[in-house]
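Before anything else, study the sequence and fold tokens given here and see whether the fold suits the sequence. Record follows:
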Amino acid sequence: MATHEYTILALTHRGARLEYELFSYDGSCDGESNALALADAIRSITSGAVTSAVTSGSVEPRDQPSDSAVALRQAVADLVDTPPFPIASAEQISAVTYRSPSTFGGSDAPVIVSAGGPSGTAERPAVSASAEVWTRSIARLAEAGRRLLPGCAHVVVPEPYFSRTIPPHARAPLPSAFGPAERNDPPPDSFATHGAAALAAAGRAAELLEIPLSAPAIVVCYVGEDISLAAVRAGRIVACTDRPAPLSAHEQQAASSGDQSALRSAPGDPGEDPPHARGAPGEADESANETFARLAYQIRLSVGAMAAAMGDLHALVFTGPIGHHGFALREAICADLGFLGVAVDDDRNQETGATWDVNRCPASPPGVRINPEWTAAAVMVVPTSELRRIAAEGLHALLS
């Protein structure tokens, strides 16, 4: 088993997209190696995304099982039929790993849905019709994978697994000012929803800083369709926000815009937000500038809380689609964090992430420092690469 070569397909839903990344593993680590070592050992071959009717977040997925099958079939077809033809046939895929935003089948540990081959089928965990939207969508996707690729091992990796060692008191609630609690909140067991992304970003940051991951204290700030923060020390999440804060379309647009006044320039009454910028009830009365200031302030508070949990800060890392592109938000968050040794270089900050393709993972370049040379803490922008960690955890479950 230790010398077996694997080709691993890692999958996750993000909004209306099914994102995938294909990895190879040459058996260089033995079965006792941890997932962090495996994450360093696997090599990314290619990545992409296909449009899917199934979602894992703010929109209820359709109930037709064919939605998952169609999206997955298209992803596999892209790998086989699209240059540079990373694999010759689907039979070359030896394992498929699925990211579940919450617990799966009642478990927060990786679940081997099928060990592969006619004699290696494991008992499928029961997923009730009343299960959370996230669980149902992943269950449908895994079932579609079992049917499309019956010879592969199939492993579901729940996000809560990455923060399993955090004591309850270290899961800090996000400030309520992020948005109404009733707006599509995830289930309570999905704290640290972007735990895989946080660990992957922290590992990449440590590599760029040329220090071992076992040394630094890193705060990872994920900003995209929702917001979550994690404190990573010695390669482990030691504190986190207890659940992600979903952002409305209005909030996402305000957070990602470099020129906040542009959000208020649509035709209409002077000073009125354009209709497409309005989100949940009550937000129509809040200008884009006010929304931007509110988000930046609340994220800044949470950064301070994560740093306090570690008693130190070597790096602040931004990731996620808005974390990549939102240079104005990054600047506003860091503006009053000088007491932590945090500052941004205006030129570096504005040039970073503008051309990154966040629909493909990993994006290029692999990560950039945007702080001046004189600051005590590094400020970095790192592409979201959670699928590498999802693939590594799934592979570790199989090798163990």
Notes: Residues 163-385 form a domain with the Nucleotidyltransferase; domain 5 fold (CATH 3.30.420.40). The chain has a mean pLDDT of 75. The first helix runs from residue 35 to 41. The two ends are 10 Å apart (CA to CA).
